[in-house]
């Protein structure tokens, strides 16, 4: 199983619609990636405990669990333009993506 994490880093002007992100982005990405997404979650970045005034490293993070890297590639690569267009609906920040094998 693969966990794809997409992070939207904080910057001087992150321009992110956090309400849209937390309420709608998982459904949009799941619709685009379809059957390959087993579970999708979104989270708003929060300051570290004890440092509420410190800026967060990531303003928003999403996780998608997918059965395999092959399914991720089959679903994500053909519609990369649609995925990027969906991401631009709630953020102008260049996202960072990381996939990990969570079976090991």
Overview of the molecule:
Helices cover 32% and strands 30% of the residues. The longest helix has 16 residues, at 18-33. It has helices at 18-33, 69-76, 80-88; strands spanning 2-9, 37-44, 58-66, 96-101. A 4-stranded antiparallel beta sheet has the order 2-3-1-4. The protein has 104 residues and is α+β, with helices and mostly antiparallel strands. The chain is globular, with a radius of gyration of 14 Å. Helix 1 packs antiparallel against helix 3.
What's a quick, concise take on this entry?
The protein is an alpha+beta fold and 104 residues long.
Number of helices: 3
Low-confidence stretches: none
Strand content: 25-35%
Quaternary state of this entry equals: single chain
Could you state the order of secondary-structure elements as H and E? EHEEHHE
């Amino acid at each position: 199983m693969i966990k794809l994490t997409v992070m939207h880093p904080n910057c001087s002007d992150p321009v992110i619609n956090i309400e849209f992100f937390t309420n709608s982005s998982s459904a949009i990405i799941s619709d685009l990636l379809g059957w390959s997404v087993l579970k999708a979650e979104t989270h708003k970045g929060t300051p570290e405990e004890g440092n509420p005034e410190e800026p967060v490293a990531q303003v928003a993070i999403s996780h998608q669990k997918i059965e395999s890297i092959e399914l991720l590639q089959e679903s994500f690569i053909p519609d990369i333009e649609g995925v990027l267009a969906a991401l631009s609906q709630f953020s102008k920040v260049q996202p960072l993506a990381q996939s990990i094998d969570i079976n090991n």
